[in-house]
Amino acid sequence: MAMLEIKDLHAAVEGEEILKGINLTINAGEVHAIMGPNGSGKSTLSKVLAGHEGYEVTGGQVLFEGRDLLELAPEERAREGVFLGFQYPVEIPGVANTYFLKAAVNAIRKHRGESEIDAMEFLKLIRDRMKMVKMDEALFKRPVNEGFSGGEKKRNEIFQMAVLEPKLAILDETDSGLDIDALRSVSEGVNALRDPERSFLLITHYQRLLNYIQPDFVHVLVKGQIVKSGGKELAQELEQSGYALFEENAA
Amino acid sequence: MSAVVESTSVYLQDFRSRSVDEPAWLAERREAGIQAFEALGLPHRRMEAWRNLKLGLLGQEHFAAADALGAVPMALAPTAALVPEAWRLVFVDGHLSPGHAAVDALPKGVTVRPLREALAQDAELLETHLGRHAELDAHPFAALNSAFWADGALIDVAPGTVLDAPVVLVFLSSESSAHRASYPRVLVRAGESAEFRIAQIHAGPDNLPYFVAPVTEIVAEANSSVQLHHVQEEGDSAYHLGLVHADLARDARLHLHGFNDGGKVGRTDIYVNLAGEGADARLDGLYLVGDGQYADYHTWVRHQSGHCTSQQLFKGVLSGKAESVFDGLIHVHKGAQKTDSQQQNRNLLLSPRALTHSNPRLEIYADDVKCAHGSTVGELDRDALFYLRSRGVGENDARGLLTFAFANEMLQPIGIEALRDHVGQRLAAFMPGDATVKELL
Ligand SMILES: Nc1ncnc2c1ncn2[C@@H]1O[C@H](COP(=O)(O)OP(=O)(O)OP(=O)(O)O)[C@@H](O)[C@H]1O
Ligand SMILES: [Mg+2]
């Protein structure tokens, strides 16, 4: 059984159709990359998969491990193992990263019928994952993303992913705006988490990311549809030709 | 309407039928109080400053002054003991509970005394200050307090004295206070360069219509520093309508922190006169207003001299069919140059049925001043909610975390640790979400 099956997915924002029939299947252990021009619907797809209520599904189906994903509340999707790394992580002044992440970890454990994590165990987990993504420990005590630089926010997303250990991680432009050091540690974090049981959907603008994370498949999203799919070489092709060719095809 | 007229005369009748043996100056001030009340009557919609307040039962029925000490309700025993390391006076139904008093070993030059006792021992100080500061012409209930107060506290701290422990005044209502009124009265004098913290705590049982109208007068002499934590946790059917008045001499500092988390109707009017140059007033307030409750802070900050500073920050969280008012005045007198005054009011509505009124008022008669004010009303941020939920945090818990985030800022300025913890627990009890998330905070 596939981990994720998207079938003819249509979605609208404020009455305007943005996704116009997406088909995509991701098996356990695979890394897929989606590339596409500005406004093509990449973030919309990620928000729909995570359950943002501002995005209305107007047609099609999404199955996660064979179950209807779209009927679940966002927190239920997370507890089932879907993780969305935000293109623009939200700043939440007044809520420390620690509280937030502990609440998240416990919610997921409870869902699995496990007991609450004890303080020592939590601290150990946090330390370990912070090292994995080379995140500064001081950031962890601060309010969620407040005053973080762009790179720190993205690192925090990967750090949270590493702590929550999802089955499916959707990373929406986690590489954008990162300098090379940050990009390296973000990529190392992702590579360290690669696992036959875990799948990734990387949304990116830049072929550069794929130098650090080798995808199994690359898809090109234009105007709400996947217009081409291929292997890693498709990214290089895009780098040279741009999206113009595909946009013509989509029109 | 006729009930209002009748109840006015009822309070006057109560007043005339008392038998008291008090000094002439005090009798005069009580008389001035009842006269001020007679002139004002109970508030009604046409009184601008009282427009939004619905008196309900208080306007229909007679709440006579409680004439005896009541028992501390069992559930409120912890409230009576809040802030363990403190000098303490506890009053029930407006009367001193001698068994709860802890005012031994006060430093030299420091008085913490029930007002009744102070009438004999500190007659001169009381005659000079008691009732000489609070203004009665806009607050009918402060007027009633002046007429009827039975007891309360005098806090007098000699020049240069710094108190390391706070003074805690607890005013409780008993289970037998239904349809009774109490009028706690507090006088605070801070001598030159004195420095201390006070907690004034009000609480009472739920499901009981009682009425409390406290008045606190603060006289802060030059360069003194007074922190007053004014905590309103009355029972859910209670009426609490109080007033705090502070007169600040040059370089004096007042930090008043209000916490309103109780009562059917809870209102506190805060008057601050920055009378001497360089005085500073900081007013903070947090109001948590549940279904069917009404909370109201009115502030009157008057910059009367130059180089004074004031900052006001009031935050409210409303749920269900709650209603709140923040009405804040900054008045800068002619000649009060170099005034720096700020006022902020922020409201978080957890329910579409909640209603909040925010009314900043600036009256500026000097030209070289910095004054800023702002007010916001909003719901929980949708993107933040989604972000938290996308990590597995349940919707209610996410709402709780964000509510906590909004209100938490108002816990930090509470300068008495035990009180800060207490207010934190009250906040946790108020906010949405389940117990395990609340424990994290
Ligand atoms: N919340 C929203 N309200 C209104 N329009 C929206 C909203 N979110 C997305 N859109 C619109 O949907 C379209 C697709 O946006 P989306 O953010 O999915 O694109 P994207 O491929 O992620 O672009 P980028 O590369 O810039 O991140 C755009 O036309 C955008 O304006
Ligand atoms: Mg995007």
Helix-strand blueprint:
The complex is a heterodimer of chains A (251) and B (441).
Chain A: E1 4-13, E2 16-26, E3 31-35, H1 42-50, E4 55-64, E5 67-68, H2 74-80, E6 82-85, E7 92-96, H3 97-111, H4 119-132, H5 137-141, E8 143-144, H6 150-164, E9 168-172, H7 180-193, E10 199-204, H8 209-212, E11 217-222, E12 225-230, H9 233-241, H10 244-250
Parallel strand pairs in A: 3-10, 3-11, 6-9, 9-10
Antiparallel strand pairs in A: 1-2, 1-4, 4-5, 7-8, 11-12
Helix pairs in contact in A: 4-6, 6-7
Chain B: H1 2-16, H2 24-40, H3 57-60, E1 64-65, H4 77-80, E2 87-92, E3 95-96, E4 110-114, H5 115-121, H6 123-129, H7 140-148, E5 152-157, E6 167-172, E7 180-182, E8 185-190, E9 195-203, E10 211-212, E11 215-220, E12 225-233, E13 239-248, E14 253-260, E15 265-274, E16 280-289, E17 294-303, E18 309-318, E19 323-332, E20 340-349, E21 355-364, E22 370-378, H8 382-389, H9 395-408, H10 417-430, H11 435-440
Parallel strand pairs in B: 1-7, 2-6, 5-8, 6-9, 7-10, 8-11, 9-12, 10-13, 11-13, 12-14, 13-15, 14-16, 15-17, 16-18, 17-19, 18-20, 19-21, 20-22
Antiparallel strand pairs in B: 2-3, 4-5
Helix pairs in contact in B: 2-7, 8-9
The complex binds adenosine-5'-triphosphate (ATP) and magnesium ion.
